Amino acid sequence: MNPPDALDGLFRIDAAGCADGTGFALAPASLLLRCSGPARLEVLAVGSPEAVSRHEAAGGACRLQRPHSILLPALVNAHAHLDLTHIGPQPFDQQGGFTGWIGMIRERRASGILPGIQSVRRGVGLCLMGGAAAVGDIVAGGPEAAQAQLRDGRLSGAAFLELLGIGPREPVAIERVRSWAADIRLGGPNGWGGLAVGLQPHAPYSAGMKLYQVAADLCRAAHAPFATHLAESRDEHELVAEGRGPLRDFLDSLGLWTTSLASCFGRGLSPVQFLYPVLRAIPTLAAHVNDCSDDDLNLLAQTRTSVVYCPRSASYFGHHADFGPHRYQDMLSVGINVCLGTDSIVNLPPQHADRLSTLDEMRFLWARDRFNPAKLLAMATIHGALSLGLDPNRFTLATPGAAYGGEGRRVAGIIGVDASDTDPALHPLIRVLESCSLPEWLPLPPEAAMEEGG
How does strand 156-163 pair with strand 132-139? Predict the structure, then answer.
């Protein structure tokens, strides 16, 4: 049967199996859920069908049969650029390189608040299609655009206000972010749905160190999330370490390359080493970190940095040719919190343009690296939640067979993945990774809950 449209009630889902990022997996499996209002879902019991049948509330539940599906907790997309959704997937121009790609984005980014809102709303819908209940979104356009774009409440997580200002433009950018901080309340909740509001100095090549420090101080005082792009490309490394290369020429073309700015770069530091004073001062969500030496790895392990790895984005740009394989496994082994993000739709394959999903990132890594399936799911759920300041328990399932009284155990959502195209003898999570199916929200997606609840 199809999921009912009612928001309130008990639901039992009988499925081929279930799994979460703690290593818990079971086949077959049943979940007993209570839905009590918009976007509120509680797990009453999870376990074998026989165990769940013994729960006192099981008899009155609406039963949903998903005999070929594996049930998972809702996913987290820890790094996205939803305002670029209108651009769609684009081929990468090898001759123009990373810096040329930045120029293309500058030309095609939507101008004005309304087009940006429309692009973000479409991006939110694609996140939901991908099974994500939370996002770390990089928001261009300042607080007014962010509030209009993201207050619909369909996703939780963080909205990072993007900060650009380097060289002669840095003082103006500092005054702007101080003004923003006076006008809005950084952190959360902020009346913007489930999103906390944070700051994101864009990258070492587009935000000056003083701007980084001011933004970090504001976020630390407000207990707000803080993020940046870091160690993403060869062009970035050449600028930071050597003071030359395409990004230096790009800054010069904008009239931003000055003697004072030149003195900041070219000291032989890697991007991680360059930004280490900031990383040491505040927990940071660092997107990409494709460029990571052993020394960089040790420095990151000394901080409270979370790394958002975007595997398909790194493949799109060919960063492995410059830096070798991404060191996400080494990062995990030394205790760095590594999570997954999609980056923007621009760098995704055209055949995947109907969703923004960290499940696709998991499948990419499974096909390429055969990395531990439970750890992949943890990167797309628990680790992502931690990086955005969310309760990681809302992105797991309960202990098998456990029964919860009172209000139950609240979760961000439940998705099911049809694995009928895989071998039933495989581990449930491997079946998810080898399936080609899109996730299905059970019993209701957050979007439907919001529409029903107004």
Answer: parallel
